[in-house]
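Example 3.
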Amino acid sequence: MINLVKMDFYRMFRMLAFYAIFLMLLLAMFLTLYIPTNVFSGAYDPNDIKKGIELLKQECDVFIGLGEFKQIPRTINELNSMTFSNSMVNMLALIFVSVFCSAEYKSGFIKNIAGQVPHKHYLAVSRLATITLYNAIYSLIIFASEIIFSAVFQNCIIINDTKELVTDILVYMLLYISESFVCVAICYITKSQTITNTFAVTISTGIISGMLMLVSMLFEYLWEKEVDLSKYTISGSIAVYGNDRDETGFIVILGFVYIVLSTVLSIIALNKRDTV
Amino acid sequence: MSEFILETNGLTKSFGRKKAVDNVSIHIEKGAVYGFIGRNGAGKTTLMKIVSGLSNQSSGTFSLFGTEELYKVRGKVGCLIEAPGLYPDMTAFQNLKMKCLSAGKSDDKFIGSLLETVGLGNVGKKKAKNFSLGMKQRLGIAIALIGDPELMILDEPINGLDPQGIVEVRETIHRLNTEKGITILISSHILEELSKIATHYGIIHNGQLLMELSAEELNLKCSNSIEIVTPDTERACEVLKNSGIESKVLSNGHISVTQQIEDSAEITKMLVQSDIAVSEIFLKGQELEDFYMDITGGGKND
């Protein structure tokens, strides 16, 4: 099992897509978070900025000022929620997972290893371990980029609530991992790169959540009962988590449920179905 | 413990109502090169996939190295099924390194020696996508060799290769069998090529195993015959029968004699002395291909 994990790590770090995704992530973060910030910087009155900064200093856990302020800066907590809930950022994470998992079917390399492993579910477990590491790296890069971008573009690093920030990062990471595991399960069930990629884009861009919202509306129209199905989806949870932390417990349980279900489905698909 | 490296017992694989492999029982001895012969769709690849662990059988059992607890011996089997599975953007070294890591080997020198073994020692950093078909096949064999397999399953390893590529792959397989003692299960459409290395044969047709035989047995079955061309076929057969030589008249009117074929001069003399004109008399040997066509009926796939 450890050997398979080593093999997957070796492949992951040698895939061009691994590095391309991180470059695109940085670009996406820059375009979606910082350019709008600078565009609207002139909207603030200098006096308000001073007052706002003073308030921030009193309320936050960490305040590292690195220069003049042209506007009231955003805290790392705000930036973090905005980044993780951004569908582009979510999609980039999933696209790599999809490409990574389905590449072994597309290339046929799985034929070289599936027959030699003592138990086929080792393949699923090693892949899921690698995907977990990938998501951890992805989350860390997001966090590090937020710090750097904040320092460069806002001349400060402000952490509003350290505990909340750590919780947020862990919860978002859990949701990203569970979404990735679903993607891996789809790959093992369909054995198709096209279907897996399509699925990755569909769930990360919120198309499925949107469809569920329509179903909920239909439900409400027909039976006059208010049901929000999108809150049972991971992408729906990613979208609402930053605004509604009261649901943290439910969201964490939901994430774990998806992880367990996807792992079980991946193992069943590998054991019961032909590899090629 | 069984004397066979691989033994299948009534192995069957169904896709819906269609049985791709139907109650097949093959037996492969240690050190053999087992040539698996059959047309496209005969069930060769399906059976090889089952034995390689890439597919599950619908019914029947098989043992590897004398045990049915396959998880214990899976590591001793190397396989190359259909086209070699390679990451196109990786070099030969990286593709091999991947398999090495999965098998718990991390010695780069071992990879170098493997590349030398299959004649790819000088490919450097060339990516697999730029390899010729022959190079890909040899890299596929090298991947199958990782883990020091005692049984290699090679599905059409010379398919699509040019004559030089065929010779190179054949020599590699022969070397692995004779020098490293690796037992080989190999399928190929090129029967004459297969006949140069195989020590045993299994012939499969429409999912069913028609026959298993050793190369010696095959040679006996394909033994040469004498064909006699004469205007007096009936009387010639009578003369031969009276001398205790069995003969049969072929569809082209020639007489075929499979006994005493070393005595063609005597047979000619006997016929001439009986006042039978002999237009032609010649030795004829049956090729593996002819033999295969004979036993499978020679028609289209059912």
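The interface with chain B takes residues 3-4, 6-7, 10-11, 14-16, 103-104, 107-120, 272-276 of chain A (CB under 8 Å). Residues 2-272 of chain A form one domain.
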